[in-house]
């Protein structure tokens, strides 16, 4: 899963990247996109680790991409944004970082500190980018449809769909709303439309507002997270032992980092199923609504092909019964078939002929 941090220049994307990945960013380096792997915190793994003392503990991960900000106000900025678009289109989640922090030494965009206006500017840019793609393709199809070709029926269908997309975008609506049919989505998936990708907003607030919920009204976002990227990055670079004191000094209960990562995971429609044993305790990301056989395919395609059944217990049931022996005795371990819809926190043991 890839989450791209995007936003206007100097909104705090690289600082946030440091907060989530723990990787420091050289402010003098060339502004190029960078990727860092983030482990998704899952307190359930700690309990399973106590039970099994496994050789290995594997958390689910998200790749975060720090995308340099582009001024959308001048031609070189626009050109940079277009250059970065293919990378952004590949993301499974877009995290728009907007500035709400005061810092006299950091120049403001358009002489303002206005998170809602900045978010709206980014949103417009996403709509324009998709509209540009759609218009170019519609024009090409209209030319091609003038001559009879073997693929004419296919092209007509695509043209009809794209005209519908154009209307939605011109009305400022995301393609996530316009493309409701799964087959239509699949047909257009190679375009990588930005407004189809789930969207999250991080409002980067001043240090003295960290921990407050500012309740901005932002449309089209799955969630809005308020945090101070500079505080979070300091926490990330501190030794574990010093973190608690630092948080207490600031009057903060917990860093916002873990919450942000969990929101990212959720916004992508991901849940975790768990596997456990003496070799490894592991959290596996799957799309919510996945069947047991799809989940087993995450472990290995051979396991999915030879799928016989899944032995399943919900994490909470396991904890209530203390361990697997207790869960079995209490009748909490179920035998589920291929089509069983996996729930978050299901502990799965897949029986397969592979
Ligand atoms: N006071 C304060 N300053 C911040 C905060 N976040 C970032 N800054 C400062 O703002 C400047 C820009 O931060 P970056 O993280 O580099 O911003 P960016 O969005 O990556 O910038 P570009 O990649 O150039 O678009 C740096 O000097 C940061 O130290 C914050 O939460 N509070
Ligand atoms: Mg940056």
Structure, described:
By secondary structure, the protein is an alpha/beta fold. It has a domain at 289-352: Beta-grasp domain (Ubiquitin-like (UB roll), Roll), CATH 3.10.20. Helices cover 42% and strands 20% of the residues. It is built from 14 helices and 12 strands. The chain has helices at 13-21, 44-52, 75-89, 115-145, 152-170, 175-178, 182-188, 229-237, 240-250, 257-267, 292-299, 301-305, 315-320, 324-329; strands at 2-6, 34-39, 56-58, 61-66, 93-100, 199-205, 223-227, 270-275, 280-287, 307-314, 334-336, 346-352. The model has no long low-confidence stretch (mean pLDDT 93). Bound molecules: guanosine-5'-triphosphate and magnesium ion (MG). The site of magnesium ion (MG) has 4 residues, from helix 1.
What is Rg? 23 Å
At CATH's second level, what is the architecture of the domain at 289-352? Roll
What's the CATH first level of the domain at 289-352?
Alpha Beta
Give the termini distance in whole angstroms.
Answer: 27 Å
Task: Give, in spatial order, the strands making up the sheet with the most strands.
Answer: 2-4-1-5-6-7
Q: What oligomeric state best describes the polypeptide chains here?
A: single chain
Low-confidence stretches: none
What would you say about this model in short?
This protein is α/β, with parallel strands linked by helices. The protein has helices spanning 13-21, 44-52, 75-89, 115-145, 152-170, 175-178, 182-188, 229-237, 240-250, 257-267, 292-299, 301-305, 315-320, 324-329, and strands spanning 2-6, 34-39, 56-58, 61-66, 93-100, 199-205, 223-227, 270-275, 280-287, 307-314, 334-336, 346-352. Helix 1 (13-21) runs parallel beside helix 8 and helix 4 (115-145) runs antiparallel to helix 5.
């Amino acid at each position: 899963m890839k989450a791209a941090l995007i936003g206007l220049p100097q909104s705090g994307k690289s600082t946030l990247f440091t907060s989530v990945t723990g990787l420091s960013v050289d402010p003098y380096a060339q502004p190029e996109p960078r990727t860092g792997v983030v482990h998704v915190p899952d307190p359930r793994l700690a309990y399973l680790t106590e039970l099994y003392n496994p050789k290995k503990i594997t958390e689910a991960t998200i790749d975060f991409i720090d995308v340099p900000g582009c001024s959308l106000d001048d031609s070189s900025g626009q050109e940079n944004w277009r250059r970065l678009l293919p990378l952004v289109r590949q993301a499974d989640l877009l995290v728009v970082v907007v500035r709400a922090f005061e810092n006299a030494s950091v120049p403001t965009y358009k002489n303002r500190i206005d998170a809602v206006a900045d978010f709206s500017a980014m949103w417009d840019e996403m709509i324009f980018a998709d509209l540009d793609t759609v218009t170019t393709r519609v024009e090409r199809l209209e030319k091609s449809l003038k001559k009879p070709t073997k693929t004419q029926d296919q092209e007509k269908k695509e043209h009809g769909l794209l005209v519908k997309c154009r209307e939605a975008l011109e009305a400022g609506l995301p393609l996530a709303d316009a493309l409701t049919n799964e087959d239509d989505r699949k047909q257009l998936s190679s375009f990588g439309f930005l407004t189809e990708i789930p969207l999250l907003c991080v409002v980067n607030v001043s240090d003295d507002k960290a921990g407050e919920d500012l309740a901005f009204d932002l449309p089209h976002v799955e969630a809005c997270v308020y945090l101070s990227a500079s505080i979070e990055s300091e926490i990330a670079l501190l030794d574990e032992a010093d973190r608690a004191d630092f948080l207490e000094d600031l009057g903060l209960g917990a860093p916002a980092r873990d919450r942000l990562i969990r929101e990212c995971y959720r916004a992508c429609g991901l849940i975790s199923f768990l596997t456990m044993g003496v070799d490894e305790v592991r959290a596996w990301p799957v799309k919510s609504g996945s069947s047991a056989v799809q989940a087993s395919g995450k472990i290995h395609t051979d396991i999915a092909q030879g799928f016989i059944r899944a032995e399943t217990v919900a994490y909470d049931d396991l904890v209530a019964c203390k361990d697997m022996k207790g869960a079995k005795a209490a009748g909490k371990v179920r035998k589920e078939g291929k089509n069983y819809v996996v729930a978050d926190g299901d502990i799965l043991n897949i029986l397969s002929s592979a």
